[in-house]
Structure prediction request, 213 residues.
Amino acid sequence: MFKQSLVLSAILSLLIVGCSSDDRFQREVDGNEDYLSTPEIRPLIVPNGMKVPQPIPDFFINKAASEGMVGHNVDIRPPVLPLAIVPDSSATYQTGEVLVDLPEYVGFWAQIPAMLTHHNIAIEQNDNQTIKTGSRFITQGDKTGSIEARYLLQRHVTFGREYIKIQLISLKQNGQDISADVLESQRYTVDFYNMLVNDLPSSTMTSKTEAEN
Prediction:
């Protein structure tokens, strides 16, 4: 019975991973767009001599302004959030920046250049407080062309804590600037940070006290 449960769990995990990596699930692709051609609701015309019940506001259908993408262009991917997988750390996204607070002993900043090289991302500037990257290219299966992003990382150390700020320098899709797109800026800023923090060795995922013991 235990072996059967183990096999079923493994199969379910593979299915979940497969769905999450399937580009078809990044956009709303099922069904059709006939609903976009739905005519507006016409006002009720009451013939002379007839009375209608007293209107009840609970049943009013208000006209809503439509903004943003519709139909197959709707991005149904869940929002991307920064990971705080290192013990005693925090990571937040605020107004175009990922703000990271983690223990200095982890040595996250010192490992970033090697991580960038591993992902074939050039480094234009690198010192103890600032790292400026070259272009990072992200290919999307549900879009033509690729995303090109460049980043600025800044570091401040105090009282044994390492504070790192990550922000976009530029964000382009097929050569066009899309940095004004708030959701896309958040996605590719957070995704870049998550890529780096996931590259940390497993030994950093334990607290300093646990490591000493």
